[in-house]
Amino acid sequence: MATIVKVVYGLDLAETDPEAARIEKMLEGLQALTPGKYLVEFLPFLQHVPGWVPGMEFQRELGAWRDATVGTKEGLFKKSMEGIDKGIQTRSVVSELVEGRGIDVQDENDPIVQEIPKSVGNVAVEGGADTTFSSLQTFFLALSLNPEVQRKAQSQLDAVVGPGRFPEYADRSNLPYITAIVKECLRWHPVLPFGVPHLTTQDIEYRGYFIPARTVVLANAWACLHDDQMYPEPERFFPDRFVRENGEWNTKVPDPAQFAFGYGRRICPGRHFAEASMFVYVAMVLHVFNIGPPLDADGKPIHIEPKMTNGVVS
């Protein structure tokens, strides 16, 4: 969360900052994107029933998430603008929008222009805070279950980076196995197994199937990323599938990013940043730490069962 807030707003967000708690509340609202979660999706008239009526808890939940979303959008933008005005703000996405693009956020005659940097910043935080964290959880889970992968990655880090410094993004071309681990994390346990729900705007026909307008469509990224024709032994965490024995990249294996980050006009705009930051995280952690399963009271490793959680972001 702190990384995406720094990049988007140029702010250093402490764990105790009230904005951090508000962002957490906002991210809880992502579960509302899960199709079929609320009865109101099937009985639209329920949106007019007061929240105090038994069974209408969704009214209160959605209201709290809405308030957190609006509060986050306004609060972070205000802090960022204060830093820009004082000349102490570091370069960020918001500062580029405001200064680099010449947007006048004080122009009360054009409220849409005022909303552009606010909304762009807020969407970036919504899309990047939870998803990157989920990918990192997959990384720690996978490496604790596959010590041989960890040893191979650390061997490459020792050879390329050495003990005298930390790995950097500039090392990426010389660390193909680290990139392979990132790709396999995206494939093995995709953050958005069914993508983000889309809604058709008109009647369409696709490969003989008629899809009416206003139909919710889900792209099954999980099925694509676990297709054994493209990825043999799909349930196995195996970064080596992306790298040939001579160390060169295996271009015959489809890049999981083409499925994991969505499609078309709604493809994730932060996909390149996500992969780049994941590479740095993975390289830094493996260069400094050994990852293993937790230990019980007797000091014996606890068996870990890899399971996905319910929700849009897993």
Task: Give a description of the structure.
- This protein is mainly alpha-helical.
- The chain has two domains: 1-102, no CATH class; 131-313, Orthogonal Bundle (Cytochrome p450).
- It contains ten helices and four strands.
- A two-stranded antiparallel sheet has the order 1-4. It has a two-stranded antiparallel sheet with strand order 2-3.
- β2 (204-206) and β3 (209-211) form a beta hairpin.
- α1 (2-9) runs antiparallel to α5 and α7 packs across α10 (271-288).
- The radius of gyration is 22 Å and the shape is globular.
- The two termini are 16 Å apart.
- The mean pLDDT is 87.
Quick gist of this model?
This protein is mainly alpha-helical and 314 residues long. It has helices spanning 2-9, 18-28, 57-86, 93-100, 111-145, 147-160, 176-188, 221-225, 257-260, 271-288, and strands spanning 198-199, 204-206, 209-211, 216-217.
Features:
Cytochrome p450; 46% helix; transmembrane; mainly alpha; 314 residues; 2 domains; oxidoreductase; two-stranded antiparallel ribbon; single chain; oxidoreductase activity, acting on paired donors, with incorporation or reduction of molecular oxygen
